[in-house]
Amino acid sequence: MERSMxxxxxxxxxxxxxxxxxxxxxxxxxxxxxxxVRSNKRASPEISEESRSKGSSCVSSKxxxxxxxxxxxxxxxxxxxxxxxxxxxxCLRAKKNDQVDGAGMYVKVSVDGAPYLRxxxxxxxxxxxxxxxxxxxxxxxxxxxxxxxxGYNGSxxxxxxxxxxxxxxxxxxxxxxxxxxxxxRLRIMKGSEARGLSC
Amino acid sequence: MGPNPKMRKEFFDSTRSSPFPxxxxxxxxxxxxxxxxxxxxxxxxxxxYNAESWSRAHVFIGNCYSVxxxxxARRFPRVKSVTLKGKPxxxxxxxxxxxxxxxxxxxxVVFAAKYPFLEELRLKxxxxxxxxxxxxxxxxxxxxxxxxxxxxxFSTDGLAAIATHCKNLTQLDIQENGIDDKxxxxxxxxxxxxxxLEVLNFANLNTDVNFDALERLVSRCKSLKVLKASKSISLExxxxxxxxxxxLIELGTGSLMPELTACQYAQLENAFNQLKNLSTLSGLWxxxxxxxxxxxxxxxxxxxxxxxxxxxxxxxxESLLCQCPHLRRLWVLDTVGDxxxxxxxxxxxxxxxxxxxxxxxFDEEVIHGVTEAxxxxxxxxxxxxxxxxxxxxQMTNAAVATIVQNCPDFTHFRLCIMNPGxxxxxxxxxxxxxxxxxxxxxxxxxxxxxxxxxxxxxxxYIGQYAKNLETLSVxxxxxxxxxxxxxxxxxxxxxxxxxxDCPFGNAAxxxxxxxxxxxxxxxxxxxxxxxxxxxxxxxxxxxxxVEVMKDDGSDDSQADKVYVYRSVVGPRRDAPPxxxxxxxxxxxxxxxxxPTNQNPSRYELPSWPHAPCRTGLRxxxxxxxxxxxxxxxxxxxxx
Lengths: 199, 639
Fold this sequence. Notes:
Keywords (chain B): Auxin signaling pathway, Developmental protein, Nucleus, Ubl conjugation pathway
Distance between the termini of chain A: 63 Å
CATH topology of the domain at 106-195 in chain A: Ubiquitin-like (UB roll)
InterPro entries (chain B): COI1_F-box, F-box-like_dom_sf, F-box_dom, Leu-rich_rpt, Leu-rich_rpt_Cys-con_subtyp, LRR_dom_sf, Transp_inhibit
Largest sheet of chain A: 5 strands, mixed
Order of helices and strands of chain A: HHHHHEEHEEHEH
Oligomer: heterodimer
Largest sheet of chain B: 21 strands, mixed
Number of helices of chain B: 23
Radius of gyration of chain A: 21 Å
Protein name (chain B): F-box domain-containing protein
Mean pLDDT of chain A: 65
CATH architecture of the domain at 106-195 in chain A: Roll
Number of strands of chain A: 5
Mean pLDDT of chain B: 88
Low-confidence stretches of chain A: 1-10, 26-75
Shape of chain B: globular
Strand order of the largest sheet of chain A: 2-1-5-3-4
Number of helices of chain A: 8
GO molecular function (chain B): auxin binding
Largest interface: A-B, 49 and 67 residues
CATH class of the domain at 106-195 in chain A: Alpha Beta
Organism (chain B): Salix brachista
């Protein structure tokens, strides 16, 4: 209906645009009226990685600009969402802080192309083969065997980890104990980049 | 017994509509407990209205601004118990400014004069100060029951006043409030000769309480049935309390942190063994696996188990559930996972209510928690399920359809897919069919919360099928005004509608003109409603209060948060500066240039049309506002 179109244009859509950001923030967000843009893909690991990495050159940015624009900033929260009472939120937050200091060594594991991360407790594993087997089962992929000279030659996937200094290393390069004490998070690279690491 | 000629005469007496003497009528009506029944009864005729007014002992006020305490007292002279609710529900999620209102004090002042023998006060989302609590404690000598849920503005000093002065107190129930927790010494304020307490719930508090005082209190209150302790109560403390009160029906433990010796463990085991009558168990903060078996002996008769602060794994939950064959209500954290919920399905055939809360709601990246599989498993095992609150990170249309097929008796279906606007993760389609299935299958549905990627189709379904729906919560959903229109035109019993972050604008808002007076309230925030739309609503419906709250830095013409509710007392006078109350009167006086009692400077429209325009619109057929064309004309007129 023509009138309704005119109505719409008078409404100053920019001002009324729905955003997922906090009120007053100017972040570009995905518009809510186009379901096709909305995918079930979360903020890709690269985005959150980028915001955290210390400019390490090992990590190549694989973020397509379109992807960046369409996904909300990884850590930004919507006010009052999910709808949980403040009382409960405060209780859970206190508990979460306790857990971080407690037993267990949880690190996040991301796989290139997968929408979600997983968390694993490194303390549960005794050796690299155990860890790799778990990762293979968890993400349904084949990493293969590690060799000092050739890395994970032939595999489409290369497990890497970020150490305490912010550097990205190939899993297996250092002794297990050193790995356990320095690993901050894991990333399973895929494709040509992964194959590049095996040289 | 032959007919009483006097009664027959009264029956035919045209000046008297009721055949019963007042005393009889009052006696009969006093047996009515439900306030909905009482409202219906009061509409029959004047005699019944009067009799009902005189016999009403408990009054329920769902919105404190819909009526004044003076009017309440005038109509119901003999009230002993009051339940009062204040702020809109979204204030629980920080969407309402702190100084918004809902102060209980003006009510207490009137009650002190009109209901000096008031016994019970239950408040939800009200602003309550220490002064008010002290006023309450001092002015009502018969006061027995105080329940504060989701209130704020008071400290433990206020609780001290209650403990000090309320000699006849039987219930003190403090839940999930924003309390300024100064110290636990308030518990010592109960006099040594005070023994009437039956319910004590202080789980809300964090500071250490004076344990000796608590122990003495519990041992001398022989009628204590409900004891819900705070986190600061250790296992050792708990053991000493349980020994004093084996008659407890509801128990909230303190912290279950590991710290007992073997001997202490045995003693606590004994204490739990004595709790033969326990029907509700909660608390369980920092519950750790070795201590869960302590609870087992007390679980045999449990009907309500609240584990929503206990970070349990699936196998721990399963072991606990094996001990609770009569469970009807279960609240858990999603740490138990789908596996834990399978255990629920297998072990709880009598389950009626399930609430699954997220342990880590703000960590979007990580997969954990529960999925559609968990709720599906529950639905296969628990066919009597009628209340669900479920926070999850993925859901499918097919799963929801199966769930409601298994459990068609849902009265409360609250599904929260935590990522806003997320589609069915298997088909990538909107979640419309899920909620379509819910409203089609669950004919008794009273309360619905929707989430996920939803188009207007969801709301078409809701409007078409949800004939018993009373409360509806909508967030990040819908495609156009039509969505909201469907809800407003369709659901005949709708009382509370709360909407946030949806593309509904003025046409949608105004399509409910004829509906809002039959509802308690409407909340719309972060939608496309403008100030003009709100002004229109206020002008057309003088018995509605239309309140607008502005966010900092937003466009002046946007109505960021709108709260609309019916009221018999007109606009409230205690609104803070951030709340603008729009009303027909104010608009008219502003047109004339005379001052209003609002703070208008920020919200003044640069060019306000004068009367002829309005008149013109009325002539155009104002009652057909649902016609977008008419609204367009209005918008062109005023913008």
